[in-house]
Request: fold
Amino acid sequence: MKKNEYGLFTAIGMIVGIVIGSGIFFKSDNILVATNGSISLGVLVFCIAAMGIIFGSLTISELASRESTAGGIITYAEFSYNKSIACAFGWFHTFLYYPTLIAVVAWVSGIYICMLFGVSGGLELQIFIGFAVIVLFYILNILSAKLGGYFQNASTVIKVIPLILIALAGVFFGNPSEISINDIMQMKSATWIAAIAPIAFSFDGWIIATSIGHEIKDSKRNLPKALVVAPLFILIIYVLYFVGISMYVGPETIMSLGDAHVDLAANKLFGAWGAKIILTFVVISILGTVNGLIMGHTRLPYSLAIRGMFPKSNKVKIVNEKLGMPIFSSLVAFIISITCLFIHYLTQRYNLLPNSDISEISITVNYVLYILLYFKVFKMGLSGEVKGLWKGKINPILATIGSLIILFGGLGNSLFLVYALICGAILVSAILFWKFNESDAIIIE
Reply:
């Protein structure tokens, strides 16, 4: 594949662009429902859940600074342990993590596009729009890696605008009395823990930038920088937005309106036409998330295939010389994403996951898998390979605690065990595949 397509800003833009995009817009109501309308408790849970991304990215950056081979998380798992574990990570991300995120976020783009054009579209229309969005961005990224990167940069800048505007509206025009610190001091139940799952969704996606690590200029320096700068920026923006819109619209209204509360806030602030502009920014923001996810997903089957870790590896690893992209890898990724979109449709159509969606379980299990990488960095810290108390010991410990907190929050989902078994089946299948095909493994080119 072509090298050095992307600079530091694109790497930061990919993380910010994927993480900030849809979750914060359509999960704010879920967070308030879980905290019984408490803004202050929501902020506290935001900060707790942020441990997973901030200290996780600081820890993973130590591995990113040492390995820049194609594959990102697959490379780090191989470096840390062995090829079986690397194959398991790769299959999990290829078949579950990325495509379930793509399916859910593409569907959300359908929701907000319907809002933008005033169409009272039902689930079927929203899913159809999501399908069209997925097709569009797979084509875009297959035809031009640079074009996908340019869109990511532009959408990252655009998507921050509505977040800041709504945050400022809350500060200047909102109701400060909506915030009560007593909610934290007097909390008696642990129902707020359920807010961790939707917040984890809102924060998720930071690891995806590692999938293009081998295409980032001076990757061993720029990728770790991106993994440190982006998460801190995201936490600040998220807390400001969550507090702002909760103060401006009111927790009760947000909980009753659900995803439509963003449209209400925009109308109250800027009127009908101004609301259209804000919603346009929101749509571009969500599309940027879909694009960033697809940028990462198209490369995953390829990254597995060059290691002999994927069916028909000889075909999947082929890179089109003219486009500089692995076409078969992209097509495989596309088929998997469309399949997950159909599964997501079924879960929504028959209300199989109330106040949740198919991505939350894979996100939770993903953070559990990260603990393996955090432990590796901790061992490197003990041996002196990673210098400094913070880098080699405290960061991986806090990252692990953050992952366990997210796991604890995910356990509140009534179908957690069912989906955890599905995740386990994918992981075991990957290990068995590698064991049976190890003798035919392909050497990385």
